[in-house]
Amino acid sequence: xxxxxxxxxxxxxxxxxxxxxxxxxxxxxxxxEGNQLxxxxxxxxxxxxxMDTPSMWFNNDRxxxxxxxxxxxxxxxxxxxxxxxxxxxxTATSQGAYCDVFRLxxxxxxxxxxxxxxxxxxxxxxxxxxxxKVKLYLEELFLPIAEDANAHGLYVIMRPPGVCPDDIQxxxxxxxxxxxxxxxxxxxxxxxxxxxxxxxxxxxxxxxVKDANGNRPTDGAWGPANxxxxxxxxxxxxxxxRSNGFTGVIxxxxxxYQSSYESYVNYPIRDDNFGYAVHVYPGWYGxxxxxxxxxxxxxxxxxxxPGVTSKPIVITEIDWSPxxxxxxxxxxxxxxxxxxxxxENFGTWGTASTSKWGTAFKTMKDHxxxxxxxxxxxxxxxxxxxxxxxxxxxxxxxxxxxxxxxxSYACWNWYKEYAANNNITCKEPxxxxxxxxxxxxxxxxxxxDFDEGGEGISFHDEERLNNGNSDYRKxxxxxxxxxxxxxxxxxxxKDEWLEYTVNIQETARYLxxxxxxxxxxxxxxxxxxDDEVITDEIKATNTGDWNTLVEVSAETKELPAGEHVLKLxxxxxxxxxxxxxxxxxxxxxxxxxxxxxxxxxxxWVNNALGQRxxxxxxxxxxxxxxxxxxxxxxxxxxxxxxxSGRVYKVKAR
Length: 653
Prior knowledge:
This protein is α/β, with parallel strands linked by helices. 21% of the residues lie in helices and 23% in strands. The strands form eight sheets. Strands 4-5-6-8-10-11-12-15 form an eight-stranded parallel barrel. Strands 16, 18, 21, 23, 24, 25 and 27 form a seven-stranded mixed sheet that branches. Strands 29-33-32-30-31 form a five-stranded mixed sheet. The model is unreliable at 1-20 (pLDDT under 50).
């Protein structure tokens, strides 16, 4: 009967005129750089949305499949249809809904072995999951839901089936279970293809994590764990995911229901594209309605989640609404399974008011500026029952007293505010000059002023991090450093490259001079124009000090006038480059003088056609006539100074 009612409801439901392709209309690939999520243009991205799971019970029986046998393949269309309505609702921007991320729980009800009874719990999956069902429903249910979310313009965080047992241990069945589930997921070709917009949260709410010997050293009986257990537990899972080819963001949990991350400081996760998945509820981090203090929230959060200063954070569970502690018939406070007091509120897990605890939370979140969040359910954000009936999106709890004190009204406003200030760029990356117009040649070009466009378009950098951590060109993976105002490129690595759009004024050969430093005898580079090599390999002089820079030069082939793309290509690693300049190699109107008056120094030897035919070093009392005679008696030669670029016209004898 429930299904028949739901079917009629779907059929009668009005079209949603406000349907949109998400907040931004796109989901460009995200990656971790420093403590931020960033899009391909280097824009910092902070996401806001909801979490849900394809469970009849958690979805308030808005869809049902018991007439089909429960959680069976034939029921997947009904679950998917309901989630389409969720995505229609939470992306209805014209009605005020502004979600841009969805946390998808791989609901364990679909994945249990036949005959396994959950008894209302989710922490027994290590012994009760069916790996063939994981493969089946990944393809038939979870990935189709994720694809539907993304078609609505949502990023997706995928969470594994179930919750952690209270105690998990390195090498135990639960670690093996997570390893197997993530092995199955990360081998999937679609999952690897979706790595730009799909991220993976390794586990849900670990409470205590023990090392292989069953130990969990702490700072006192109730203090945070300070050993390597969490790292030893999760690092092999990360390594397995990466070895399978998944390149997207991985979210690493802590302990204490995802509230404690201190041990990662001394035992860091080894990966370059991860952040931390954290949970926040009233009463945690020293804050509730009776003690709502933003500064305390900030300091306690940073103490318990020190990675907030070095990695992006996503709060994957949070909610609140006003209420009070519930009491049983004997007048005793009721407690939930996790030991927290049961409360009478609007139906959320957490009890607090937006004007008190919620305001302190938002101040903390905005202080760090790198914290994304998903409310613990769709119904914490949006009244889905009302939307199913009317097609109108509105905040949840509208029929409650003081609804603006709950998380739904607060996030309804916050999400819209955050969306207006996010800088996600939807256009296809296009290579453009950094300053808007092509660099002029002849002229000087700052090495850090490479073209806009991004990785693989206007530059290639071997790693995503900017090792120089300079604010100049912030957000790009190119290593830009700022040495007391002297901005330049550093940490150069073999086969990296950068491109510059240039406007060459005159068809001619040019002298390229670069200002460099290195302590490596092998460091070198060369230049290309429109991907055609135009110089020999140029050695960067070993100065023994990164802040001692010298000029090195090379001649180009003849360069055609007009707009072109000049490429700086790293042949051998580890040198700094501040700038380079191109000057006309003009062999007309030069100084004509006797051989004996040419100054000492290093020279390139050019013939009368402007072709380089050799080089020489002229020292005091050196026999220049004899050296030049090698090029033919009475021939006209042009000696160009390597250091100054000045050209001398001489006649060999």
